[in-house]
Each structure stands twice: as structure tokens, then as C-alpha cells.
Write a structure and sequence with these properties.
The chain is mainly alpha-helical. The protein is built from three helices and no strands.
Length: 84
């Protein structure tokens, strides 16, 4: 559920990471128990989002590869000679 103190854009960036989701859940609990103000939670999440984006941009060297099984190929270009 989208917390009232977070914008949709903040929530999207944060929930992409399990640590971010855990932080958001913890902040929600702290706000609910009136241990912190929503404004403080927003500042914490903004700081987290900025820093996680910077760290991931510098430290993560991931690659993605995938296989595709082509069941049928249809070419409509005149030079190909029609359907294969």
C-alpha cells in the first residue's frame, strides 16, 4: 500500500529493492506508532533513494542475456521472396 508520506515516484524507486521495501515498511510502522513524523520519513526515503541510485550506478556491473525461441518468421519484404 502506498504510504501517505511517499509520492508514487518515490515508492516505485524504493520498492525495486528489498532493502528499500523493508525500510519503507519500518518507516510506516514508526509513523503509525507516532515515534517519528511523516516529514522525517520522507527525508529518510529521499536520502536512501539518492544514495542507492548512486551506489548501484557505480558498483553494479550486471548483464542480462536471454534466449528466444522463434516459432515462425514471416517476412514481407519484396527482396526476401515472401513467407518462410
Amino acid at each position: 500500500m502506498l504510504a501517505a508520506w511517499q509520492t508514487a515516484a518515490q515508492r516505485m524507486l524504493t520498492v525495486q529493492h528489498s532493502i528499500g521495501q523493508t525500510l519503507a515498511d519500518t518507516l510506516d510502522e514508526l509513523i503509525s506508532s507516532r515515534r517519528i513524523e511523516p516529514q522525517l520519513a520522507m527525508r529518510v526515503m529521499q536520502n536512501f533513494d539518492q544514495n542507492i541510485a548512486a551506489v548501484l550506478g557505480e558498483k553494479v556491473k550486471a548483464r542480462l542475456s536471454f534466449k528466444v525461441i522463434l516459432a515462425r518468421y514471416t517476412s514481407t519484404s519484396p527482396s526476401s521472396g515472401g513467407v518462410f
